[in-house]
Amino acid sequence: MGKIDMMPLLKNHVDSWTPFLQLFAKSSPIGVDIGADSILVAQLETNAKGVSLIAGGSKIRPPDVEPGSVEWQRWAIEAMRELINSGQFRGKDVIAAIPAAEVFIDHVKMSKAEKKDRWEDSILSKIKQKLPAQAEQSSIKYIPTEEDNVMVMATEHKIIDRHLAIYENAGLQIKSIAVWPTALANSYTRFFGRRKTDVETIVMLVDIKADRTDVVICRHRTLLFARSIPIAVKQLAGEQVISRLVSELHGCSGQFGSMHRKARIERLIFLSGQAVDRDICATIAKQLEMPAQMGDCLAAVEVANPACSGIDRRGCQFSWAAAFGLSLS
To answer: Could you say which residues of the chain have pLDDT below 50?
Structure first.
């Protein structure tokens, strides 16, 4: 008996239910991935069919504007205001993350005695000499991971206040300030870690961006390690810089292994999508001697109306992993 192609029938069936499914759609807040060289905004929607892109947009910093300067702040305000007002965004609620370059991250081991009493004070005593500012001038987040390890993230209050002022002056409502490692883990688990076996698999997420490379090691949603490396995608044209990035990634793997002796990284996932040449990713994976896959978040979402989405899928030069992950927070 010949096989029957059910796909046209299934497509017609799903399409006929689309207006009904939209009643149960849930719009997420706008995710804002702000960096030294660019601003990306994206809003996703979760419905019975999966995740769809409502709207998005990007702005590149003008070359005559110094990152972090007063002029940069004015540019960021105007850029976000223009992106949100000109797009098909729903509401003004945003979830943002402080840029990786302005977040201090360290990993600390706790002893059994420290776990029993006032462990946060004990951890602080170990890292306060490394902090870029005094502890009382910083917002510090402690994330217990596994094997008695703690990930510590800190940002100066004045940096947080600067970013809050940018969003306020852009007419946006901050729902929360998230952290970039969580945003990357959110994108991974939602789009590429959906199999039952992925729940216990430890992966290294590599997001090569316009101004840096962000690295996260996680067991599904559980953060285990994070580090930002000051090597940008535009620098990877030569073999020497690629080798340097591989060396840095080896260092991340080695540090992780020294802290988590019972764990092993099983897979490397590039979250940069089309922003990085696939051959470069293949070269990095080969030198790391690690199984790898490409994780294109932009290709993983449905786009109901491409003409109004604000993002051109063809030849996209940005990584959308952080912006999508923030919207899904």
So the answer is: 1-24
